[in-house]
Structure formats: structure tokens, C-alpha cells
Write a structure and sequence with these properties.
15% helix; 243 residues; binds manganese (II) ion; 13 strands; alpha/beta; binds guanosine-5'-monophosphate
Length: 243
């Protein structure tokens, strides 16, 4: 099936009802993965409260690839399964946001410039990235991406994007080892200051660093040869202090 990508950047974000259950008294275990690229068989996913998928579950952007990923999601025990698309996840960019949100039956929440609140924790996700071979959700660096990041609410606790911010876990092996993350996203982080920022996209810089109060997680499962060699990354959000 050939998909015709619309790639209209003025897509209407969905409203998500708050999944507010209680103020977490025990903290929240967040399990992160991204860039599985059709290789879910060998991944051992730890249990946790919230599963975050930061995009590139497809390789060629075919519907059957999504179907296979959906079956993988269905086998996981997490109560909340949040999904943000990547540049390889073309079907999400071909349909309207409403339709895109239904493509993975086993994701509890599809985030496309939208957020969800889980037990008092505010999570926000966006698939857009600086253009690179013009696949799904690509935009030129500069103003258009800055407009996207301007939509991130100030009070976001956990930010999920497919692209890394510039300079953080975004070094490619080729191209002289340069940083390819989004400069405009890096600037937006100065305003938002999330507790955690989860992303993927640059396979070879997978890892975790904490800097200026934000823990950055590049949760890629695949290496740059698209082989699934890394483990999901687990992060425990501490329980909320009573004000
Ligand atoms: P993907 O095609 O899965 O989105 O990205 C795969 C690899 O392409 C990354 O691990 C990285 O090596 C490279 N890559 C992704 N985005 C860029 C970019 O904007 N510039 C350059 N030079 N390489 C990129
Ligand atoms: Mn903030
Ligand atoms: Mn990838
Ligand atoms: Mn990517």
C-alpha cells in the first residue's frame, strides 16, 4: 500500500481527558523506548506504571509494520502506553490526527502536539523533527519548528519528542560526529524546564544524562545499523512532595 503523506503542519491536536487517579504516593516508574524499527522480538521490556514510545517503530512506514508493533504493545503489562510518532512512522502523517490516534489499538494515548495528565504528572508529546530526507513530520530548522515547540505548556513534567534537542545525546557517528538535534527545541527547554525529556532518533547516542534539573533520555533500541541492541531505559519519578 502506497501512502500519500499530507504533512500539513496545521493539524488539530486532540484533547485528552486527564487520567487523574490520585496524587502518586509511591512515585511513578516510567519505561522508555524508541526506534525499535520492526525489531521488537528481542526486546525485554521491564514493567512500570507508564510506557513511553518516542517514535520510529516502523522501518518503511507500512501498515503491516504498525500492526506488528501494535501486537507487541498488546503483550506488555503497562497500564498507560504513550506513543509519539517518528519520521519512519509515515501512516500517522497521512491521516488526520483523529484517525492517526486510532492506528495503534494498544496505545492508550497518541500524542501529537498534545498532552495527558497521569496521576498528577503532566506529559506532552510531539513527533516533529528537523528535516532529514523528508519523511514524516519533517520541518525545516528555524521558525516552523520554533512554532511547534511554542505549543509545549510551561508546566510539562515529562516531555516526549522524536528528535533530541541540539547538543544533548544527538551526536551522529558519521558526518564528523556532529550534533543533529533541534536548536529550537533546545531553546524551548529553557522555558519549559521539564523534569524528564524522552526522545530517540539519533540511534548511536542512546543514553541518559541529567543537566540543569532535567534528565534527558535517548531511548533508542536500535543502533545505527538498525539492529536492536539496546535495552529500554527505566526512570523513576520521585513521589510528589506535599506543598
Ligand atoms: P532515522 O532514519 O531512524 O530517523 O535515523 C537514523 C540515523 O540517521 C540516526 O541514527 C543518525 O545517524 C542519522 N540522522 C538522523 N537525523 C539526522 C540528521 O538530521 N542529520 C544527519 N547527518 N544524520 C541524521
Ligand atoms: Mn516548567
Ligand atoms: Mn530511527
Ligand atoms: Mn528518526
Amino acid at each position: 500500500m502506497h501512502m500519500h503523506r499530507k504533512n500539513h503542519r496545521f493539524r488539530q491536536p486532540l484533547k485528552h481527558e486527564a487520567h487523574q487517579i490520585a496524587t502518586p504516593s509511591k512515585g511513578m516508574r516510567i519505561v522508555c523506548l524508541s526506534d525499535t524499527h520492526c525489531q521488537t522480538n528481542s526486546i525485554d521490556v521491564p514493567d512500570g506504571d507508564v510506557l513511553i514510545v518516542a517514535g520510529d517503530v516502523c522501518l518503511n512506514g507500512r501498515m503491516h509494520e504498525l500492526q506488528q508493533f501494535d501486537e507487541f504493545l498488546g503483550r506488555l503489562p503497562h497500564k498507560h502506553k504513550l506513543f509519539v510518532a517518528g519520521n519512519h512512522d509515515i501512516p500517522f502523517d497521512c491521516f488526520t490526527t483523529e484517525k492517526a490516534a486510532t492506528l495503534l489499538k494498544n496505545a492508550t494515548c497518541y500524542l501529537e502536539n498534545s498532552g495527558v495528565e497521569i496521576e498528577g504528572v503532566k506529559l506532552w508529546g510531539s513527533p516533529w523533527q528537523p528535516e532529514f530526507f523528508d519523511w514524516a513530520f519533517n520541518l525545516p530548522r528555524g521558525r516552523q519548528l520554533a512554532e511547534m515547540w511554542a505549543l509545549i505548556p510551561d508546566d510539562t513534567d515529562v516531555l516526549i519528542t522524536h528528535t533530541p534537542p541540539y547538543g544533548i545525546l544527538d551526536r551522529v557517528d558519521g558526518d564528523g560526529g556532529k550534533h543533529v538535534g533541534c536548536e529550537d527545541l533546545r531553546r524551548a527547554l529553557q522555558r519549559v524546564k521539564p523534569k524528564v525529556h524522552v526522545f530517540g532518533h539519533v540511534h548511536e547516542d542512546r543514553g541518559v544524562i541529567t543537566q540543569n534539573g532535567t534528565t534527558f533520555i535517548n531511548a533508542c533500541i536500535c543502533n545505527r545499523h538498525y539492529m536492536a541492541v539496546y535495552d529500554p531505559i527505566v526512570f523513576d519519578l520521585p513521589k510528589r512532595e506535599k506543598a
